[in-house]
Amino acid sequence: xxxxxxxxxxxxxxxxxxxxxxxxxxxxxxxxxxxxxxxxxxxxxxxxxxxxxxxxxxxxxxxxxxxxxxxxxxxxxxxxxxxxxxxxxxxxxxxxxxxxxxxxxxxxxxxxxxxxxxxxxxxxxxxxxxxxxxxxxxxxxxxxxxxxxxxxxxxxxxxxxxxxxxxxxxxxxxxxxxxxxxxxxxxxxxxxxxxxxxxxxxxxxxxxxxxxxxxxxxxxxxxxxxxxxxxxxxxxxxxxxxxxxxxxxxxxxxxxxxxxxxxxxxxxxxxxxxxxxxxxxxxxxxxxxxxxxxxxxxxxxxxxxxxxxxxxxxxxxxxxxxxxxxxxxxxxxxxxxxxxxxxxxxxxxxxxxxxxxxxxxxxxxxxxxxxxxxxxxxxxxxxxxxxxxxxxxxxxxxxxx
Length: 401
Fold this sequence. Notes:
The protein has helices spanning 12-31, 51-54, 61-80, 82-104, 106-116, 123-131, 152-171, 173-185, 190-206, 220-236, 243-248, 250-269, 277-309, 315-342, 349-371, 386-400. The relative contact order is 0.14. The protein is an all-alpha fold. It is globular. It starts with 11 loop residues before the first helix and ends with a helix. It has one domain (4-105, 148-400).
């Protein structure tokens, strides 16, 4: 086992990465209102104009969150042990997931059927249908209810937590040896090439056969990507010497990620109708490899820049670390609801989008301020009990000492 003196301390820069990634998610979901891709509600001004800029974060945003969650989970397991780890993670993830599906998410589905199938019933009428699993709201596909919508991330994270909780005891001391071996491999050019090879292989083998569903069961392509990154994070959380290597590669990683984004944008903008089947197939293979390179190089850049500039603990980090999960739970329902209510006002898209961002952030943090003070609401938004929060604060202070 790694000697206690060499165990990694809390990686504060990864807290900042998680915080910033969730704020990018708010901007992304506001953008979903204005693009041509299917979403719950749509602006009358929706077009493909900002889609290339939306794709700046699409390849890496969620993969980064799963990687950071893997690091944090490994850290928590080290501190609590298997049973307490499972209990803590289940209490943090399952009540918000169930509460979210029953209370937070339904307005998204309600406004979706109002806009897409001209549903005229009241919200209470809709909730009776929602809770009884009504599947009659159909266009090309039928709306599945109840649903977790954006909270799919929480369901996946809980399942991956179970996998990790089984693997760590099964591997025992071999896990630390594996971590050191992986850390030894990921040096120099291999930091980029080896993770990209795994991600590209998963994308080439599974992307076409198992399109993304976020339904958990049968979503094999997403599991191959996200579980791999989650487990990689759990391993790298035990290799503190790995993170400075990303620091050294941060500019190169950023350049690679931006170049990949440019190539992907060109491919997606090209007219494919005139291509032969062979040309299109070769193009798809190359595109999937480039997408994998974009995913990992952007993750490496984000972690590298954060390690260089954000390995700091302060009151803002502690506040935002607690706030970010409740804000995540709330943000999409607020965006969908406010967008629907603002539609008759017919604001200019730029003004409307700015208002959506401002109201979503301020209302999310306003609700968080209420929740964090209420012992009954805290568990429903993934917050530790007040007494437990005080103990965790003392523990973090000891870790940072």
